[in-house]
Amino acid sequence: MARLSPDEFAARFRGAFAQSAYRLEQFDHYVASNEVEPFRIFLSGRQPDATWREPWKAFVESVLAEGRTMARVHVVTEPLTDYAAFEITCVYPANVEAGEDVRILPRHAAAGLDLPAKDYWLLDSARVAVMDYDADGNWLSVDVTDEPDIVEHSCRARDTAMAAATPLNTYLAQIKESTEELGHGRPHRRAS
């Protein structure tokens, strides 16, 4: 197993997979330096300018143009925290527009699915980059392994989570419909 810093992993990510990359996210809040200002704008009730998502969007478009695939499932607590609502409405739409398959899985629906305890990237169904975060959502390190039991469990978890999760645009439509029916405004709660 190779332990990498977040910067080392990010620098190697483009070349880390030849066919597919799948991401499982399970936190209700992550800390990322490029999100600080857009998240602050979101919390003020405004929509951040989408240009801050252009680098990731361009990356995904180029990867898909090479014939590779990218997908992710984010397990979320409902009602959504402010940060989860931010990701779903301000971060992921650019991913989907670029061609990434983004799906949302409510935490209650994930119970019993035997998902790994930690977030990970599954690379070409052959290597797993297990991501270590602290309790506040700060990314600490990545352990990359090709250990067969971990890879097999991660592949099964990917297939299970993808089948159980809802595509982003469908999830957004469901949230909009349910909040309109209930007569509520923002479909999430403040993070504590």
Overview of the molecule:
This is DUF6879 domain-containing protein. Pfam families: DUF6879. It comes from Actinomadura viridis. Residues 7-172 form the DUF6879 domain. It is a single chain. The chain is of the alpha/beta class. It has a single domain, classed as Endonuclease, Chain A (2-Layer Sandwich). Helix content is 42%, strand content 24%. The protein contains seven helices and ten strands. It has helices at 6-12, 36-43, 54-65, 82-98, 107-110, 148-164, 168-182; strands spanning 2-4, 20-25, 69-76, 80-81, 101-106, 120-123, 127-133, 139-145, 166-167, 188-189. It has an eight-stranded mixed β-sheet, with helices on both faces. The chain has a two-stranded parallel ribbon with strand order 4-10. It is globular, with a radius of gyration of 16 Å. The N and C termini lie far apart (35 Å). The model has no long low-confidence stretch (mean pLDDT 93).
Strand content: 15-25%
The structure class reads alpha/beta
Order of strands across the widest beta sheet? 1-8-7-6-2-3-5-9
Computed over alpha carbons, the radius of gyration is 16 Å
User: So what's the oligomer here?
Assistant: single chain
Overall form: globular
Mean pLDDT over the full residue set: 93
Number of strands: 10
What can be said about the biggest beta sheet? 8 strands, mixed
- Our measurement of the CA-to-CA distance between the termini, rounded to an integer number of angstroms, reads 35 Å
The secondary-structure element order is EHEHHEEHEHEEEHEHE
Question: Can you tell me the CATH superfamily?
Answer: Endonuclease Chain A
Helix content: 40-55%
**Total number of helices:** 7
Q: Which CATH class applies here? A: Alpha Beta
Instruction: Please name the CATH topology.
Output: Endonuclease, Chain A
Q: Which stretches of 5+ consecutive residues score pLDDT under 50? A: none
CATH architecture: 2-Layer Sandwich
Please indicate the count of domains.
1
